[in-house]
Every structure is written in structure tokens, then in C-alpha cells.
Amino acid sequence: MAASTSTGQQSAQQAVTPQLRQWIIAQAQAGCRPEDVLAAMQAAGWNEDVAIRALEDTLAQHLASPSAAAPAPTPVAPARTTQVARRAEPEPQATAVPEPSLAGEPTVLWAGDRQVQVLMTSKLPRVVVFGGFLSDEECDQLVALASPRMARSETVVNLTGGSEVNDVRTSDGMFFQRAENELCDRIERRIATLVNWPVENGEGLQVLHYRPGAQYEPHYDYFDPSHPGTATILARGGQRVGTLVMYLNTPEAGGGTTFPDAGLYVAPRKGNAVFFSYDRPHSATRTLHGGAPVIAGEKWVATKWMRQGEFI
Ligand SMILES: O=C(O)CCC(=O)C(=O)O
Ligand SMILES: [Fe+2]
């Protein structure tokens, strides 16, 4: 499978329709900032780099068109005809990655303000499962802070009047800014201490909510170096090199995190977390992973992505 980004397989199904392009233009004309439009698309289940490319392509194409000055949204061409030249990409070089201090095989680690259990490790893919990373109260508080913002994002997207944006969504999501509140700041510092990676290199926490039947198709979290839009994304701190998925509740059944190349299934337990790192944006890291369908109950997770450099 080709390397892809946070919703790799999903992105294959995420066709950028004329209706979506029209909606993007309408948002821009209504004075919405591109970052808010991007956040709304992500909350509706759009893969981050698919959404960024859709935004960039649509707005660039629109500005270049004679109708750009017209006050009302204008239909745009249904398909992009520009061919982007592709060349064979060399296999990327390995880079430094976050890594917990596991020399001596400790059963617990001190994460600055809390003791965390080491429950399972794997070398390839590099995976470490932690127990008790968050307290029950922290999980509940994160869900409470995230919930209203998910609802608001959905309303914005519903303005499209079309179903294209929502059809691909299998979970709802939102992003916090880094250190947006005391709780995020505390959790971000704990992560940085646990995996020995600067807090500045972290993206803001993402919260996802899966209802019964919802899932996250297997994907890679790194950005595909062969995508034309990746250069723009990498300008904000380089590649992603590590992920921590924190379980904010315990679904009744299903909803684990799967690593299909390794045959691994991490059961979702409230407060636990699964860490994995990838030293190259390449499938050789075997970090293909997904959120298995929720069979009963619902599932809430918070995800922290770590970049090579400072995330700005
Ligand atoms: O929900 C899960 O178990 C996985 C989430 C995930 O892969 C992500 O947020 O990138
Ligand atoms: Fe992921």
C-alpha cells in the first residue's frame, strides 16, 4: 500500500466534488478564514492533507478564473486537469523519533506529574502501550471540553446543504490549540516527558468520537512525501514522527487500535494510551494502523501527533 497520511485509505474515497469546491468558495466569500474552513472540514471527517489540497487548489483556481471578482459563488470545473509531474521518490532517510526511557525494562515510568504503567512493547512497529496515562477525571474533562465544539463544527459544515462532506465521516473530531487550557497543557507536558520529545514539537490535541459502527480505516499518520500538498504541511514543523492515542472511555465492545501489518490489536481502556513512532515516512515502519469498528457503546480518543521540529 502506498504511504499516506492520517486518513490514508479514507482519503482515497474522499473525492473533491464540485459541490465541495463551491462550498469552499462560498466560505471564503463570506469572510471565513481558511484555517476555520479547514477545521470544519477536518471535523467532518476530511483527511487533513486532502482538505488542505482541496482548499489550496480550489482557491487558487478560483482566484485565477475571470469569475473571481463576481459577488456570488460560481460553479467551478468539476475536475482538476492539471497533471502534477511525479518522479520516483527515493526511500526517505531515518530520523530521530520520540522514545520512552525503557532501558532496564521498567514496569512503571515517571511522566513528570504522574506514574504510568508500561503494559506492552513491540520493536517493529515501534509500539508501547501505557496504562493509567490519564486519570478518569482528566478523560471526562477532555470529553466535556471537546463535546460542544464537535457539535458546532457539524453545524458549520451542514451549511453546504449537500451530503458529500458528511458521507465519508465515521467519527466526529475537533482540535485544541496547543496549551489552550490548563488540562491540555498538563497532558502535553506529560506526553513530552514520557516520550522524551519537546512539547513544542507537538500538534494540538485532537479529540475523536466514534458512534457504534464508526471506525477509522487503516492509515499512516505521516504525510506522504509524494503528495504535492505535503511541502506546505511540512513547513509547519516537518514530518510527523510519533503518535499517542489516549482512550478517554472504554467502549463495551470493539473500537481497539489495530496494526494490521503486525497483527496487533490494542484494546481501548479508559486512561490507557498507545504510543507508536515512525522514523521514516515509509510503510517499512509497519505503522499502518486504524480504529476498529465500535461494536457496542461509543468510543472517545485524544490523539497527539509529534513533529520532527517545532510545530507552528
Ligand atoms: O481511534 C483509534 O484507535 C486510532 C486513531 C488514529 O489513528 C488517529 O487519530 O490518527
Ligand atoms: Fe492515526
TrEMBL record:
Gene Ontology molecular function: iron ion binding; L-ascorbic acid binding; procollagen-proline 4-dioxygenase activity
Quote the InterPro entries the UniProt record gives.
Oxoglu/Fe-dep_dioxygenase_dom, P4HA-like, Pro_4_hyd_alph, Pro_4_hyd_alph_FE2OG_OXY
Cofactor(s), names only, from the UniProt record: L-ascorbate
Which residue range or ranges hold the Fe2OG dioxygenase domain?
201-308
- The region called Disordered is annotated at 64-101
**Keywords on record:** Dioxygenase, Iron, Metal-binding, Oxidoreductase, Vitamin C
Q: Which ranges are annotated Low complexity under compositional bias?
A: 64-85
What PROSITE patterns does this protein map onto? FE2OG_OXY
SMART domains from the entry? P4Hc
Note the Gene3D superfamilies from the entry.
q2cbj1_9rhob like domain (2.60.120.620)
The name this protein carries in UniProt is 2OG-Fe(II) oxygenase
Q: Which organism is it from?
A: Ideonella alba
